[in-house]
Amino acid sequence: MVKTQYNEQHMGAAYGPYGQMTQAPQAETMRIDDVIVRTVALVAATFIAALLTYGMVADGIANSDADAIGTAMMLGTIGAVVGLGIMIFSMFKPVTNPFVAFLYAIGQGLLLGGVSAVFEQQWPGIVVNALLATILVFGAMLALYKFRILKNSPMFTKVIVGAGIGIFLLSMANLLFSAFGVDLGLFAGPGESVSALQWIIAIGITLWAAFSFILDFDMIEYSAQHGAPKKYAWAGAFGLTAGLIFLYWNLLRLLSYFQGD
């Protein structure tokens, strides 16, 4: 997930089939507040983990400490592998285990922090801008859903899920070819000129990341209204956290394209 850092996120069917979510609960049922609390906890874990590797890389660059940078990148690589594994797992089964959800959040945080520090070194201020943009886009999509300006529908779901599968396969192909030293030219690296195709891909994936929140909001609302077991609040929180991380990666890359030009 190096650019798999960017594109591996948020591909899983985080919640499972609607029917699976609304079986008669044996105990408490989930509420939207439960999802909010768990999402805040997962985002906080991601942020704390990111601060660790961000500090290591930033200090390593400032002090020419190759060992610190190497350690941070090793932690980030482990986080990327763990995150990819959990994301693939989530395609087949909702993530309702808090340990797995936190493992994903921390792993992605370790990756996010180190890579963000590298971007920040090259383009000062880009990390703050990407974070603010992520918050603003998420808030805008929530408002559009809340006021029913954007609503889910069978066709909307098909388009988002189909595009998500395509993005995932594209990411995996890019990762596989990169492992053998082949550059497909799909994503521009730091300092490289950006082609028209790379701009189209970057903008398209970022838009997909934003609009995919509509599915998350709809699933959470539907599940809460129809008495899904409380454990599925973790599935909702996992989906939102993965979506926020994925959106951040894409906004960070998109902003770097603007800086590069």
Automatic annotation (TrEMBL):
Domain of life: Bacteria
Keyword Membrane appears in the UniProt entry: yes
Transmembrane annotation, as ranges: 35-57, 69-92, 99-119, 125-147, 159-177, 197-220, 232-251
InterPro entries registered for this protein in UniProt: BaxI_1-like
Keywords annotated in UniProt: Membrane, Transmembrane, Transmembrane helix
KW Transmembrane (keyword) present: yes
PANTHER family xrefs: CONSERVED TRANSMEMBRANE PROTEIN-RELATED (PTHR41282:SF1)
Full protein name: Bax inhibitor-1/YccA family protein
UniProt organism field: Glycomyces lechevalierae
